[in-house]
Amino acid sequence: MARAGMTAERLTRAAADLADEIGFANVTVSALARLFGVKPAALYAHVKDLRDLRARVASLALTELADRAASALAGRAGKDALVAFANAYRAYAKEHPGRYAAAQLELDSEAIDVSAGVRHAEMTRAILRGYDLAEPDQTDAVRMLHSTFHGYVSLETAGGFRRHPREADASWSRTLDALDAVLRNWPPA
Amino acid sequence: MARAGMTAERLTRAAADLADEIGFANVTVSALARLFGVKPAALYAHVKDLRDLRARVASLALTELADRAASALAGRAGKDALVAFANAYRAYAKEHPGRYAAAQLELDSEAIDVSAGVRHAEMTRAILRGYDLAEPDQTDAVRMLHSTFHGYVSLETAGGFRRHPREADASWSRTLDALDAVLRNWPPA
DNA sequence: CTAGTTTCCTTAAAGGTATTAAGCAAATGA
DNA sequence: TCATTTGCTTAATACCTTTAAGGAAACTAG
């Protein structure tokens, strides 16, 4: 029997692709084994178990998302930076729904690489440099931005905006206008 | 063998409670059957399948959430209404994480009762009556509010705010201040 | 170039899940 | 009290995860 040339990285990448196709929840050891023309048990030489595999996909997604956001952010400031970051975030989630789902589901898992999370926080703070916010307002604003981005993308993906004819793109754009406005004019405590 | 007295409603309620305890993803036909002291196959007389059971839990959660939000909203206007609604939303999600997860996951399912979703939308519009927004700004604002609420609760539940010492309650309160501010001063297109 | 070792996959097996079909026993009602 | 309906069990199929043990292929020495 010829060898399939599996590695943890290749399995992770394939699992991520599979997640984007059939949904993160449907990514299974068996399905992945079929993809590699191999028996399920063979995967356990490269990956601890299903939980581990999922954590790896989550880590991959967080890293990719951070990379995209970082390059979108490069050389921009103020509202430009805000919009570029937000659009990169949303585009990634729409392009890679399975990866995005993985990134969310596993925030609490200790198995996960924290570095990507730290990068996200740093980038969001970088956006805020264009606005005049001191602590603890800055932390509050970071949380609000992240919440709005994640919430919007999450609801949009779940089909929450399909009942109303207004384009999701238009509301997104206006939401970013509103965020910019409130960051420029952050209410006093 | 004594009868367990199962009905679709009781199963749904028990499944919802179970979801709050062990997580929505871990709610299984077998676990529910164990809870009722019954073989798994027995449930199929009352519920079509696992998918159906989950949709019922989602529907229950959406209705409960809408009820809570409605009573929180009663007799309030302006920022009072916004804060009351938001707090009711967040409190429900924290109190019933399994139910809340169910409510999100199944937005696209056709099997679900749409009435609860409509009620949510109507209530959010009711909040906006205290602010001066015409269409399509109103729809955009509804989407932004919902996104922020869901995103915040979702990230908080997943542990996304635990890395920073700032209290999640405080950031939540300030986020509501910011939303109020931006609704009062919605940016022009 | 061949023998030993390591590496990677397979087979085998145990246990969990969903789901359907058939059967039996308890409640219902004529 | 008998017949019917209702509600559960048993049985069977078909997945899934995961561990343990075995074999073949690819390396590594001599």
TrEMBL record, chains A, B:
<keyword id="KW-0238">DNA-binding</keyword>
<feature type="DNA-binding region" description="H-T-H motif">
    <location>
        <begin position="28"/>
        <end position="47"/>
    </location>
</feature>
<dbReference type="InterPro" id="IPR025996">
    <property type="entry name" value="MT1864/Rv1816-like_C"/>
</dbReference>
<dbReference type="InterPro" id="IPR036271">
    <property type="entry name" value="Tet_transcr_reg_TetR-rel_C_sf"/>
</dbReference>
<keyword id="KW-0804">Transcription</keyword>
<dbReference type="InterPro" id="IPR009057">
    <property type="entry name" value="Homeodomain-like_sf"/>
</dbReference>
<dbReference type="Pfam" id="PF13305">
    <property type="entry name" value="TetR_C_33"/>
</dbReference>
<protein>
    <submittedName>
        <fullName>TetR-like C-terminal domain-containing protein</fullName>
    </submittedName>
</protein>
<feature type="domain" description="HTH tetR-type">
    <location>
        <begin position="5"/>
        <end position="65"/>
    </location>
</feature>
<keyword id="KW-0805">Transcription regulation</keyword>
<dbReference type="Pfam" id="PF00440">
    <property type="entry name" value="TetR_N"/>
</dbReference>
<dbReference type="InterPro" id="IPR001647">
    <property type="entry name" value="HTH_TetR"/>
</dbReference>
